Predict the 3D structure of the following.
Amino acid sequence: GKVGRWNKEKSGMVMYASGRLIVIRELDDLELGGCGGTEEKKRKVKAFVYRGHTAQVTAAKFSESGCYVASGDIRGRLRVWSYDNEEHLCKLELPTALAGPIRDISWDADNRRICIVGESSKTDSSSPCCRVIQWDTGVTCGDLGVHARGRASSCAFKPGRPMRIVTAGTDDARCMFHKGPPFQRLLVDSSDGTSSEYAHTRGAVHCVR
């Protein structure tokens, strides 16, 4: 299979996808054994498995507050669900958030907007590969740039204001910047007069943060 991403936004937790499941493991650092002690304690691991997707999960991210998780699958379905609720209720579900697989997800610092990137439709040129939406309604918050062949690999919100979004291409080695809301493409020039979108000269950009 393809290499995925480990997420550790919340202290003492890791989250990763396994097929159609999302695994969240809580690691208690107080229970880690020491190196020189006479009696080592065993590591205690608390795990939770989310089963809300019907297809292979490709991305999952905690909100900045840690109360919600946004997750996407290979069919382009996006689900926003509660982590701190015992029933883990689904707040938002978009069956076709993207026409293809969702490759990365990012929350803004206000827990109000979600950026998703992945693959667009191979037959519909108007299908987006990058979107930014309201977390509870799914309403689009602007137009993001389109990467070559409609394939994007990663995205990230700037952690503070003014709000910025960066998206990375799978085939064009470009990092596109956006300002908002509503979000629109922002052309940034570097000190030598060239566009900062071309910080990489070849290949794919696998991750931006």
